[in-house]
Amino acid sequence: MESFFTELKRRNVLRLAATYALVAWILIEAGSVLLPTFGVPGWFFRVYVLIIMGGFVVSLILAWVFEVTPDGVKLDSEIDHSKQVPRKRGRWNAIIIALLVLALGVSITLNVTGVRDRDVPEELIAATDTPSVAVLPFSNRSPDPDNRFFADGIHDDLLTRLADIESLRVISRTSVNEYRDTTKNLRDIGTELDVTTIVEGAVQRSGNQVRITVQLIDAATDKHLWADSYDRELTTQNLFAIQSEISTQIATALQAALTPEEEMRLAVIPTNSIEALSYYTAGRNNLYLRRFDTLQEARRQFSQAIEIDPDYAQAYAGLAETLLVTLTNHRSIDASEAYDLASAAIDKALELDDQLADAHAVHGLLKYSQWLSTRVGNGNVEAAKSFERAIRLNPNLSNAYVWFSSLRDSEGDYDTAVELLNKAMRVDPLHRIPYVNLPGFYVMQGRPEKALHLLVKAMDIFPDWAMPYQYMSNQLLGLGRLDEAVAWSYLAQTLTDDPLTKFGVMGAFVEFGALERIREFGRQFPVDHPMYRMGDAYLRFTDSDYSGAIVALEDLELSTEIEASFAYPLMSMSALMMRDYDKAEQYLLTANPLLTSDTAAGVDRKNFRSAILLAYTYQQTGDTRRAERLLAKAERVISQMHRIGDGGYGIGDVNILALRGRNDAALDALREAIDEGFVSLLSFDMWTLDQNPMIDALREDERFKAMKLELDRKIEVMRDNVKRAEESDDWSELLNRVRGDELIASLHLRIANR
């Protein structure tokens, strides 16, 4: 063994091995940093490492067989070693060993300590040189204006194909559609969307011929990076082949590497029917608007596309999404019907194309919505897996981030929910939903003014979208600004046909004593609307017909969380007002099975009010031990929340203290609530301060009477403000309290002309 080692040293094999190892380490470390920078896929780096390792084996063989001499490279067997003079290499060997030790130390630092894998701050990720592109809506150069849907279909398909490329950041359709027929210059658009390049295109259709022209432009300089035109016979094969070619050309121009899987996705032909494509595109456009009427039209258009091409996976996914959005946003479809139809559609979409990111995202939305209604089972886990799969397939799919955020919010993981919404806005800066969901998180953080500011920004960007106005109304109700809430609700009503829009401020009219206004709302509400019975029950409750309210609700199939979160509290409150504590307990535990848990996790932000009601129920039946346990859990939850604003705890602490018999502390807490802006219990619960039986022990206290009179006077002032605005048809004074600019002048005219 010693002679073999000596021979290795003589033939310089060990020295070459050490030198090669040092050089190989440098090459591998450099490759691990530089190759991803240029968008090189992971498989290329693995091949790169294997080649370097293979070279190591080859170099050892060559060092053993050959030797470098003054007369050139010779086979070791041809050399007379007895005549060779040994060369001193101690210094070089020491240097090589020192460098190897240094390299080893760096490797340990980077890999063992985890420095290499440490998370990079999101703001730094956003600043990297990832190629980014916005594909603006294609212009229709055909004389027939109906061909716009054809041009939109080509645009939508190209955008989808580019979004599937992981090494590109592609702005989603919801944002780029805001620039249809825009007069803005490309530099401004690039700045607003935070992209480096922009794609413009035009489509001209004539008979069975089509011409598509496309150009890729540097957003900062207006310089054309690439352009081409395509004249083909109008067939679906030609159409989608052009899209695949354009996508590849753009990726090449942006030096974005394509994986074999992405190349396969680019070659997919989603439908064999031009007519089906046009219906699908029109459906996507209507779905994007999210209005009650446009969702009905989108459902019809997706169904028509499926009828023409029963193998159109994207159309099935679009239909499923439309059904779920209609249920969630407008409650204008029965929940069980929506789930059944959406489930069948999404199953078919995934059967036809299990690589369709949209289908996996909608599948996640379906599973999440079903789980949300009961919170029983592992539907949330299934939903998370579907969202993660969708994002892996298409990291530019903003809906997947938005819906995933809602899931994490429901699970109480608020930090992740906010992070996902910010990612959605990164790939889709003009996506509507983050603008109305993020304000709720800001209120939870105790920053209501920031929430209102973001809603105002949403109105500036989407002036004809009702939801920001409705959310503004909800936030103002929670802040005790009832008159302003009514003004913004009226403004929202001018932008949508959804009858539920009026329901949000019914609590304000109860406080104003305008019960006839509530009855009028009930008479005008469509009898065939799925929420009609709930509205009828609420009207009965406000009229103190508690048994009638229960009868109106108890035979309903409550299959969504929104329905359950409205119906069960109303039923339990009605039972409590009737002193039927057995029924109250039944309703509360049916809606909140976790309240039977002995763990602290049994009470959370979603059910703490029900926990307090159940504690009151137990007190009335003499079970003080269980009552106190629930109150303690609810108190811990409240301590982590903010009082005022939509989603606040209102006077939950007052209820808890009063139930514990700590009347002085309860009155102190009520004083604190009023000083913070509390005005109406109806902004948080379904009954008024006068109805709430949990604070009955406080009512005869002079401090309570004084504070109640103070609240009544505030409400009277706000009632007069609303009455004055209604009589004059001028709501500008109330609207201007949130935003004092010229836009208000045009906004309040909508109310006057409604």
Structure description:
With 754 residues, this protein is an alpha/beta fold. Among the domains are: 103 residues, no CATH class; 141 residues, Rossmann fold; 204 residues, Serine Threonine Protein Phosphatase 5, Tetratricopeptide repeat (Alpha Horseshoe). Helix content is 63%, strand content 6%. The chain contains 35 helices and eight strands. Strands 3, 4, 5, 6, 7 and 8 form a six-stranded mixed β-sheet that branches.
Mean pLDDT: 82
Number of distinct helices: 35
* Class derived from helix and strand content: alpha/beta
Beta-strand proportion: 5-15%
CATH topology-level fold name of the domain at 274-477: Serine Threonine Protein Phosphatase 5, Tetratricopeptide repeat
Radius of gyration: 33 Å
CATH class membership of the domain at 274-477: Mainly Alpha
CATH H-level superfamily of the domain at 274-477: Tetratricopeptide repeat domain
| Overall body shape | globular
Q: How helix-rich are the residues, as a percent range?
A: 55-70%
Count of β-strands: 8
- At CATH's second level, what is the architecture of the domain at 274-477? Alpha Horseshoe
Question: Could you tell me how far the N terminus lies from the C terminus, measured between alpha carbons in angstroms?
Answer: 99 Å
Largest sheet: 6 strands, mixed
Which residues sit in consecutive blocks of at least 5 with pLDDT less than 50? Answer: 108-128, 741-746, 748-754
